[in-house]
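User: We ran a pulldown and think these components assemble together. Before we commit to crystallization trials, I'd like a predicted model of the whole complex to look at. Sequences follow.
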Amino acid sequence: MRNNPTASARIRRTVIIADDEPSLRILVRATVGTDDYNVVEACDGDEAWSLIQEHRPSLVLLDVQMPGRTGLEILHAIKSDPNLTATRVILLTASAQESDIRAGLVAGADAYLTKPFSPRDLLSRLDEALEL
Amino acid sequence: MPGAMYESFFSLSVDMLCVAGYDGFFKHLNPAWTQTLGFTDAELMARPFLDFVHPDDRLATVDVVEKLAKGAKIVNFKNRYECRDGTYRWLAWTAIPAEPAGLIYAVGRDVTQEVRAEADLKDANLSAATRLALLTALIDAIGVGVILVDREHVVAHWNQEASRLTGISVEQALGQPMRLLGALFAARVEDSPGLQPHFERASRLPAESFRFAMTILDPRRELEVTVSPAVLTSERGQVGFVMVLHDITAAKELDRAKDELIAMVSHELRTPLASLVGFTELLLTREFSEAQQDQYLETMLHEGRRLTELINDFLDLQRMEGGYKGLDLGPADLRTLIARAVTTAGDNPRTPIEIDLPKDLPLVMADANAILQVLINLLSNARKYSPAGGAIRIGASVIGDAVEVSIQDHGLGIPAEALSKLFFKFYRVANADRRLISGTGLGLAISRRIIEAHGGRVGVESGGLGQGSRFHFTLRAASPGAKLGDVLIVEDDSGFARLLEAELALKGLSSVWAPDAETADQLIGQMAARAVVLDLLLPAASGEDFLARLRASRGELPVVVVTIKELDATETLALRTAGAVAVLKKHSGAAKEAAAFIADALTPREAH
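Assistant: Here's a predicted model for the assembly, 740 residues in total across the polymer chains.
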C-alpha cells in the first residue's frame, strides 16, 4: 500500500487538485503527500484544463463549483479526449445534493467526495481509482 | 225565466253577483257577498261601493264604471274589497251594462289565493335572479379561478380570475362541452398529455374531490387545481363539478428561493468546514514538521474565523429580511459616523482613506450603528478589492432632501455584467484577478437591506475591470420636526435612549436622541432643548467635552449625567461644577430617575 518499497521506487504519479479555495488545495497536498505523488494545483477551471492537457495526470481532483469551467465541464472534456483515457477523476463538492452526485457519476467520475471529507476517505478513493 | 227563478239562481251562486247603479251604490247583492266579505247586505248598500274598494284600486274601479257608462259591452278587471275584519280580498270581475240603461251587472270571484301565489312566484323568481347575480359577482370578484360545469355537462361559468390565470377567455370557454376541457387547455399548459387523465377524471364526474398541479405557459403560472363534485340533492345526484384554480406561483417561487438559499448556505458552510475537519484529522493521525503544523493550524484558524463571519453575516441578513424591526432611527451626524468607520478600517499607507465632505452637511435620519456597519463594509471592500493599492475617497453631497454618501476606489473594478447582481446575496464576481480575495458574498446584500430599510437607495458604478468602482447610498436628511423636543438625549446605547424617551414622555416631555456628541453639538444649535440627559462614554468626542462646550454656549441648561463609568468623588464634583444637576449611575431604574430630575429642574419654582 502506501509505504511499500515499490511505491517509493516507482515514478511519482501526477495528481492535479483543482479548487478555488486555497485552504482546500493545502489540505489535499498535505493528505496525498508529496513523497508518493507530484501534486499540481489549479485555482480555477480554465487553469485546471490547461494543466491537465500539459501533464496528462494519473488523477484529477475536481471541485464541482469553481470559477471558469466547472468540475463537470472538465470531467466531460477529459472523457471525450482520447489522450486522457488513463486519467482518473474524483469530484469534490460542497453540495450534498443527490442529483449532483448522480450527474457526476453518470458523466464518468471514478469517485465523489462531499466536503467536509475525511482525509482517510480521500486516500482510499484515490487508491481505488488508481487500483493500487 | 220568471222572476222567482232568477232570484233562486242569484242566491245559489258561489260567485259574488251584484247589480250596481251609476249613482255609486249597490242595488242588489247575493249571499256570496256576506260569505266572502263578512258585511251584511244592509251594510254594503248603506255606503257607496267605492268605500269598500281598496284606496289604491278606487281610481281603476271608477275607470271601469266610466267605460261601461260610455258603452263598453264587457269589462274584466280585478280590485280589492275590504272585509269586515279590516283585511282585503282580491276579486276578479266581469261587468256588463244592464238593459235598460242605468245599471251594471257584475260577477266577482274571490281570487285572493291565486293573486298571492302569483305574487309569491314573482318574488321567488326575482330573489332567485338577485341571488344568482350576487353569486356571479362574488365568483367574479373572488381571487381564485372558478370554473363551473353544469348538469348539461357544459362549461356554465368561467370567472374572470380563471381567464386571467389560464389565458382562456370567458367567450372561448362558456358553453364548451366538458369533454373538450382538456383540449381547451392543451396549447397553454406544460405537459398537456400528462394532464389529460385529470381532465378525463373530472369529466367522468367523480364523487370525490381531487387535486392536481398545472403549469400555464406564457406568462408562466403555477396553478393548483381542485375539482369538487357538485351535488344538487340526494335524489337527483351529481349535476356537475366545480374546478377551483389557485395561483401558487409566488409560493413556489418562495420555495425555490428558500431551497436555493439553503443550498448556497450549506455550500458556503461546508467549504471552511472541509479545512477544519480535514486538517484536524491529519494532525491527529499523522506526523508533520513544526512548520507544516503551523501552516495547517493557521489555515484552520483562518477558516474558523471565516465560518464565524459567515454565520454572523447570514444572521444579520435574515434579521433584516424579516423587515429589520430593530432599526433605531434618529438624527445622526454623518461626519462622525464616517470618521468612526475610517478609524475602524485603520491605517494602511497603500490604500489611504481621504474624507471629503461639504461643510454644511445636514443631519440624516439614521440608525447610527447600522449605517456604521454599511460604511465599514464599503470601506473594507474598497481596500480588499484594491490589491495594488490606491487612495479611497469618501464623499457626500446633498441631493434635494437626501444626502448621498459615496466611496470611490481605484481597485479592480467591476465588469459591466456583474453590476446589477452585485447586491444579491452570495453573488461574487468570478474573475481571475480576485480569486485570492475571500469574502462571504453577503456584505453588500446586508448593506443594501440596511439602506433600503432606511428608505434609501444603494448603487454602484464602475468603468469596468481595472477601472475602480464607486459605491453610493442615500439617506434622508433629518426633517425640522425630527429635531424638536424638550430634552436632548446624548446616548450611544439606543436601548437606554429609548427607555429615557419613554420615561420623559410619561412626564409630558418630548425628546430628541443623538447617538454621539457631534450630532448633539449640531442638534443643540437647531432645537430649542430645555434640558439634556448626557452619557459620558460616547463613540467619538466624550460627554465631558460636550458638557464643557454646552456650559460655554448654553450656561443655564439643566444637564443630568447618566453613566456606567465608575466615578470617584473628584470626578463627580467636577461634573457638578460643570453644571450637571445630577450624576446618576446607569442601572435599570436610572432612566426613571433621570426623567424625574429633568422634570423637577424644568418645573418653575415658587419662592421658597
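The first helix of chain B runs from residue 3 to 12. That may be worth checking against your pulldown data before setting up trials.

User: Thanks, that helps.
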